[in-house]
Amino acid sequence: MGSFSVMTPLAVTRSDSYEHEQVVLCQDPSSGLRAVIAIHSTALGPAVGGVRFHPYATDEEAVADVLNLSRGMSYKNALAGLDFGGGKAVIVGDPARLRSEKLLLAYGRFVASLGGRYVTGCDVGTDVADMDVITRVCRWVVCGSPNRGGTGDPSGPTALGVLQGMRAAAQHRWGSSSLRGRTVGVAGVGKVGYLLVGHLVEEGARVIVTDVREEAVRRVVDRFPGVLVVDDTETLVRTRGMDVYSPCALGGALDDAVVPVLTAEVVCGAANNQLAHPGIGRQLVDRGILYAPDYVVNAGGVIHSVAGLSGCALPESVARVERIFDTTLAVLERAEAEGVPPGVAADRIAEQRLTAAARSRAWHGPGRPAGS
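Above: the chain's sequence. Below: its structure in token form.
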């Protein structure tokens, strides 16, 4: 890929259309760092969102992803009732090849230069050990090691939140929150997907999984021998008798090719930005498929991660994650009452809070909501 300088016109144009507050292009030739930090909104407080380390095919793809993801974080945090705005970062490249202490420290210095407007954390391709390195040069970091004062890996709370969202969707669709006897297809059994499978097995669900990585599938089967495996996502979405489809890998899982052949009655998964384009939400409604909006159900990770920043004790944090059940049910009920797709209903609720906060500018500095 070429220099990030060619991305500047695209970043400005896309950020205007997405109403982002700030898009920062980061380069450090000595370490090989090429990253983008996008701050969508600080109306509710400092922008919080993880850093994704991914080998994007083009610079444009990286910018588009970080803009979508950061906007999603604003909506996720607003709907979760958090006093934090939305942001996201992406590091361009293969983490298996490029990850180094020097690169992470360079990224941390870019985050630090924003003075607390953006708080970074784990996402796809980054982990707790990476956050520990970044913390050496930047104090605006979550998800570090617990023994160093951090909140640790957010995968567990994320998986728990998705389970609660799935139970709420089951309640809305079938009149019972129990998943016992239901067949759930999980696409992507990385950190969150693996833990979600464990919850589903405990719930008494019949679980089918797929993943492009053989080692990830092997880990699931070794731990849960009763889980069924299919070759790929295309096979999974066509599996007859599937009650719930749970996309837990990267975004865009629901597109014009998948929706017409999807057999599940409910979609509820951990992946961000599952709808390939806004029209997919209406297509799902027209097919009678209930979609639990991704940023509603996968908010458990950020709820847990910001607990230390907001002075929230661990038991209270867990209780907030479990309340994703109530939030999801409220979104689904509003969607039904207003005759709109669930994603539209969720957006409306989040936008109401963001608009009210923007009018009052309800924060007085990094990490200090109004009235603190």
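The domain at 155-351 is CATH 3.40.50.720 (Rossmann fold).
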